[in-house]
Amino acid sequence: KLLLCDSCTICCNSREECQSNQNYTVGALTPLEFTLVMLGGICGFYILLFLISYVMRSKVNHRYILDALELSGSASVYHFVLCDTIMGWLVVLTTLSFQITIFYAYLKTSSFEDKETSDWVYAKRCPPNGLECEDDDDTTTLGWISLFLVMLTYLMTDIVKGSKLIFRAGILSSVRLFVAGIILLIITVLAILSSYFYNRATALSNTEIILNSVILLFTTDIDEWVHRLLFYLHPKWLEKMMHDARCFQSNLDGTSDKKDDESNIEPQIDSLTKNQNHSFNINPDNAFLRDHSFLIDKIEKSTGSIQTMEDKLNAITDRLNKIESGAKKSEAAQRRRSTYADLVVMSS
Fold first, then answer.
1. For labeling, which of 5, 78, 198, 293 is most exposed (least CB within 10 Å)?
2. Which keywords are on file for this protein (predicted)?
3. Within the chain, which residues score under 50 in pLDDT?
4. What are phi and psi of 23, to 5 degrees?
5. Of 221, 254, 272, which marks where a domain is finished?
6. Cα separation of 96 and 38, whole Å?
7. To 10 degrees, the CA torsion angle through 105, 110, 116, 120?
8. Does the residue 16 lie in any domain?
């Protein structure tokens, strides 16, 4: 059983490895408590953003070409929130619960409050024949800056997508878009805070900071792994879910287009989805073309490439024919010269 000494300032084990007997807190909050407060504050902020955009929706003179499927994650199970099936929502809730459970485990072991389950490492060495302890913590500011840059590079896309989904949820009065956006933001915040607090508890070098953060970032991709698994287990069901998500998106686009037509607003293309505008030029009454617009666009591009290759091949063939014709003419001329030479020899 672990020996507890609440009055001790430093605790050591039999290998002379020691740590300060003081829990790391943010103010008066443990890492887990601080994370819950942060999540509550962020959810409150985005609820306020949703309400503001909802109230101001009639004054927004900008047409949003909304690619809800892309923003919520076309390769993630979280786009199932755009569908009407109970099974899809169960997959979303199960995946989200699994990810939150993993982050909770890291946050729980990042605290020194429960010494028996804590992952806090011994960062000091206190020889029995010495008066001072040696600090083994080699982390520097560079390591923490690297952690920030890794998190920023990997997760900033999800922050932007989640924010845009929530803002447009208010504009288009869509609770599902709000749910999709808040899920992205919750996972992102949990990943950032879990990585920071766990590194404070366990990292003794800059390389350990990066290693721990990368391992935790894998947790944010579990929704994509589940989506890939469903693709191999039940591709037809997954195709149906994608179709339902596109139909939901098309209905939102139709609502947005109607409002813009009534206000005589010139259509503008959002910078994030400007490359997706081709699919919105298709007649909305044609459901097949609308749902398969991406595939049709690919076929058109492939047809153009094939035509270009055929033109180049024809040009090469014509050139080879000209070369072959020139070679035949040269050979005929050579034969005539040879025959003439033979006649000259015979006449002489």
1. 5
2. Membrane, Transmembrane, Transmembrane helix
3. 1-2, 255-287, 289
4. -75, 140
5. 272
6. 18
7. 140
8. no
Residue of 64, 45, 283 whose CA lies nearest to 173? 64
Asked if residue 4 belongs to a domain, the reply is no
Q: Is 80 exposed, middle or buried (0-12, 13-18, 19+ CB in 10 A)?
A: buried
Which residue's entry shows tokens 């599902």? 176
Give the pLDDT of residue 44. Answer: 92
Lay out the sheet containing 134-135: strands in order across.
Answer: 10-12, 17-20, 124-125, 134-135
Asked whether residue 284 is assigned to any structural domain, the reply reads no
Residue 339: per-residue pLDDT: 65
Question: For residue 112, which of 204, 221, 31 has the smallest C-alpha distance?
Answer: 31
Do 249 and 321 have their domain in common?
A: no
What is the C-alpha separation between 177 and 168, in angstroms, rounded? Answer: 8
Domain containing residue 178: 30-120+138-272
Helix/strand/coil (H/E/C) assignment for every residue in the chain: CCCCCCCCCEEECCCCEEEECCCCCECCECHHHHHHHHHHHHHHHHHHHHHHHHHCHHHCCCCCCCCHHHHHCCCCHHHHHHCCCHHHHHHHHHHHHHHHHHHHHHHHHCCCCCCCCCCCCCCEECCCCCCCCEECCCCCHHHHHHHHHHHHHHHHHHHHHHHHHHHHHHHCCCHHHHHHHHHHHHHHHHHHHHHHHHHHHHCCCHHHHHHHHHHHHHHCCHHHHHHHHHHHHCHHHHHHHHHHHHHHHHHHHHHHHHHHHHHCCCCCCCHHHHHHHHHHHCCCCCHHHHHCHHHHHHHHHHHHHHHHHHHHHHHHHHHHHHHHHHHHHHHHHHHHHHHHHHHHHHHC
Question: What's phi and psi for 124, nearest 5 deg?
Answer: -130, 155
